[in-house]
Design goal:
Strand order of the largest sheet: 2-1-4-3
Distance between the termini: 71 Å
Largest sheet: 4 strands, mixed
Number of strands: 4
Mean pLDDT: 79
Low-confidence stretches: 75-80
Radius of gyration: 23 Å
Helix content: 40-55%
Order of helices and strands: EHHEHEEHH
Shape: elongated
Length: 109
């Protein structure tokens, strides 16, 4: 019995090692079981910018695959700057922006 994994475009775009694997071995891989597929995914993720993982196919999925190799494509958000900006705005260090709480402190509208 084999465990068939299809590589999704998100994994190829997020991880160069996955792109090379698809180039030289195709977008579908067969493994003995899920554990072997997960070990492959872990090997592809070592030292990569973004990790990839095995995601089981939905029970209603009509394709002939057991799972997909996937990754998140969007960048992680850097919220530190947003926090600092909000903190400055609440302290009133924003240069008099009328949208801050300081505008309301003296009864303004």
């Amino acid at each position: 019995m084999s465990y068939v994994v299809e590589v999704k475009p998100s994994a190829r775009k997020a991880n160069a090692a996955v792109g090379h694997a698809v180039l030289y071995g195709g977008a579908r891989r067969e493994f003995g079981d899920r554990g072997a597929a997960e070990a492959w995914a872990e090997g592809l993720s070592t030292g990569a910018d973004r990790p990839v993982w095995i995601h089981a196919a939905h029970p209603a999925d009509c394709s002939d695959v057991d799972a997909y190799l996937v990754s998140r494509q969007r960048q992680l958000l850097d919220l530190d700057g947003a926090y600092d900006k909000r903190r400055r705005r609440l302290r009133g260090d924003d240069g008099g922006d009328p949208g801050t709480l300081d505008a309301y402190a003296d009864g303004g509208e």
